Amino acid sequence: DAGVTQSPTHLIKTRGQQVTLRCSPKSGHDTVSWYQQALGQGPQFIFQYYEEEERQRGNFPDRFSGHQFPNYSSELNVNALLLGDSALYLCASSPLVERSTDTQYFGPGTRLTVL
Amino acid sequence: EDQVTQSPEALRLQEGESSSLNCSYTVSGLRGLFWYRQDPGKGPEFLFTLYSAGEEKEKERLKATLTKKESFLHITAPKPEDSATYLCAVTTGANNLFFGTGTRLTVIP
């Protein structure tokens, strides 16, 4: 049973560019959440997708946007990259958004470096 | 404002030396508390979910407990392969996790 997968593994961009990160959830999961983890910090919630809609959003600017596809996979897009966007971006999946105590399972992450 | 504080920030143990990590939280309406293990450059790996005060869960050398204000992760007779960052997270609903900054554990052979 494949777990959560993310691509690419690493990415290097320059300031002002745009980036798209991809995530496939664990089999049987339909909810995808994205987190940003700066070096030495805990992950911070960006947003969550369920039924192809953004259901909840953390304290991140509109430069961060996402999408969920009918097969439950998801993309995270970041526009106008800043140096401060350099981080490990984590995708997590869970069975149902309404069951708020369900465990989230994380992928390996995408390391984004902005120069 | 919701807050999760983990202590200590870093912990060095000799192999076999048992200890505990602390996660204290101030949230409105705790729905669940989670412990994850994270190796450098990798995604967090799920360990435990605790839902109510008094609950305990065990897995190999790890045991997690929960009170109304904090959770402990007890590590019994740790081995070098237990070296990692241990993250605590809480949810108050709607499935988003609020994380602490983690405890970096190093177990010396």
Question: Secondary-structure blueprint of this entry?
Answer:
The complex is a heterodimer of chains A (115) and B (109).
Chain A lengths: L4 E3 L2 E4 L5 E6 L6 E7 L6 E7 L2 E5 L6 E5 L5 E5 L8 E8 L10 E2 L3 E5 L1
Parallel strand pairs in A: 2-11
Antiparallel strand pairs in A: 1-3, 3-8, 4-5, 4-9, 5-6, 7-8, 9-10, 9-11
Chain B lengths: L2 E5 L2 E5 L4 E8 L5 E7 L6 E6 L5 E4 L2 E5 L3 E6 L8 E8 L6 E2 L3 E6 L1
Parallel strand pairs in B: 2-11
Antiparallel strand pairs in B: 1-3, 3-8, 4-5, 4-9, 6-7, 7-8, 9-10, 9-11
What descriptors fit this protein?
heterodimer; A: 115 residues; mainly beta; Immunoglobulin-like; 7-stranded mixed beta sheet; 4-stranded antiparallel beta sheet; 11 strands; B: 109 residues; 6-stranded mixed beta sheet; 5-stranded antiparallel beta sheet; 0% helix; 57% strand
What does this protein look like?
The complex is a heterodimer of chains A (115) and B (109). Chain A is mostly beta strands. Chain A has strands spanning 5-7, 10-13, 19-24, 31-37, 44-50, 53-57, 64-68, 74-78, 87-94, 105-106, 110-114. In chain A, the strands form two sheets. In chain A, strands 2, 4, 5, 6, 9, 10 and 11 form a seven-stranded mixed sheet that branches. Chain A is globular. Chain B has one domain (3-93): Immunoglobulin-like (Sandwich), CATH 2.60.40.10. In chain B, the strands form two sheets. In chain B, strands 2, 4, 5, 9, 10 and 11 form a six-stranded mixed sheet that branches. Chain B has a five-stranded antiparallel sheet with strand order 1-3-8-7-6, with no helix packed on it. In chain B, a hairpin with a 6-residue loop joins β9 (84-91) and β10 (98-99). The mean pLDDT of chain B is 94. At the A-B interface, β4, β5, β9 and β10 of A face β4, β5, β9 and β10 of B.
